[in-house]
Design brief:
This protein is of the alpha/beta class. 40% of the residues lie in helices and 25% in strands. It has 7 helices and 11 strands. Strands 1, 2, 3, 4, 5, 6, 7, 10 and 11 form a 9-stranded mixed sheet that branches.
Length: 236
């Protein structure tokens, strides 16, 4: 059985959307909030009858994700986990179909497609066209705020006995004994919908700037994105 395991701090509106969708489809949920999460978040989890626990975040994101895995293992009820950040909303088709796909796939670790966007962009972009461009290798045009690619594959879905362990204080990544990860479809109706406001992104960036690892990675990504944009501009 698969559990959808959510990490949340103060993202109450996002959390509600995810919990309501998973509960509507009668799917198991486990939430790990922070000991400093607002009372509104903790009260919501109790009122919605969501199984949850509290965690004292110390600035190490991989340590937090490993702790979430360990807490779910201790429940001894689930074989698979899909880790979600509170602002990642799984598409209905993903929620409904993924366990059937896993049952016959013979895999233990799976990449899930995530669509990154900002609320202020949604009226100006063709989401279906962006997904088609990515799948066909064509050049797609979408303003990339803060150097964020609209579509990426995330290592979030795996068996709890697959030996997955998270590394890195920030921009954490999972490693396992066997590094082969299968891919779920790159489809807009089969992804993690990762929408946020520009204001929330700016708040997150300010927090990340405290990490030297983030500053170095951001500089590298900015260089790559500038090169990619120069290629796109030359093809217009």
């Amino acid at each position: 059985m698969l559990v959808w395991a959510v990490i949340v701090y103060d993202e109450l509106d996002y959390l509600q959307a995810t919990v309501e969708r998973l509960q509507r489809h009668d799917k198991p949920i486990y939430v790990m909030c922070d000991v400093k999460s607002p009372e509104a978040v903790k009260n919501y989890l109790m009122d919605a009858s969501v199984e949850h626990s509290e965690y004292a975040f110390d600035g190490d994101y991989s340590k937090m994700r490993n702790e979430l895995d360990n807490r779910v293992r201790l429940l001894d009820r689930y074989q698979w986990i899909c880790q979600l950040d509170a602002d990642e909303l799984p598409a209905d088709n993903l929620v409904l179909e993924v366990e059937g796909i896993l049952a016959g796939a013979g895999v233990t670790k799976v990449n899930v497609c995530r669509f990154n966007c900002y609320s202020e962009q949604l009226d100006d972009i063709d989401i279906k066209a962006i997904f088609e461009s990515v799948k066909t290798g064509e050049v797609y045009h979408m303003e990339r705020l803060w150097n964020v690619e609209p579509i990426e594959m995330c290592k979030r879905l795996y068996r709890l006995d697959a030996g997955v362990e998270w590394h890195g204080r920030i921009h954490e990544w999972p490693e396992a004994d066997d590094e082969d990860w299968a891919d779920l479809p790159i489809e807009s109706d089969f992804c993690l919908w990762h929408e946020k406001t520009q204001e929330r992104q700016e708040m997150q960036n300010a927090k990340y700037e405290e990490y030297q690892e983030h500053r170095e990675l951001a500089a590298q990504i900015a260089e790559q994105m500038a090169w990619k944009q120069s290629i796109r501009d030359s093809l217009k």
